[in-house]
Task: structure prediction
Amino acid sequence: MNIDSIYESCVEVVLNAGKNLLDAKNNSYKILRKSEFELVTELDMKIQQHIISELSKIHKVEILTEEVRKPQASSFDECFILDPIDGTHNLIAGFQIYGISLSYVLNKKVCFRKLHAMDAREFYVRCSGLLGPSWRAK
Result:
C-alpha cells in the first residue's frame, strides 16, 4: 500500500472516530486513573479500540497507543502512533481543546501526523517535507 492510500484512509478513520467521540462525550462515562497524575476515560478506550480496528484493516503494522504502554516508536521501522483523546484532562474539565492524534512512521521517520480538534471542527495535518502544518476544516 502506498503512502497516499494510507494517508487518505487514515483521514477517514480519524474523522469517523471524531464523529463517534462527539456523539458520546455528552453521555456519562467513567474516569479512571492511569497513573498518579494521568487520567483516562472509557471514551479513550472505546475510541482507541475503534481506531485500532479500522487501522488494522488499512495496513498491518504495529500500533502504539497513549493508553497502552509499549516500546517507543523508535523501536519500529514502521508503525502508527495513536492518542485517541489528546487532551483527556481538557475533555473531562469541559474545555473544548482536545482531539484525536494519529501519526504514521515509516523508516523511523514520521510521514504524517493528524490532529482532529473535535469541538473546533478543525483538522490539522503535518507531513514530512513541509515547513509547517497545513490546516483544513472538515
Remarks:
- The two ends are 25 Å apart (CA to CA).
- DSSP finds three helices and eight strands in the chain.
- The longest helix spans residues 3-24.
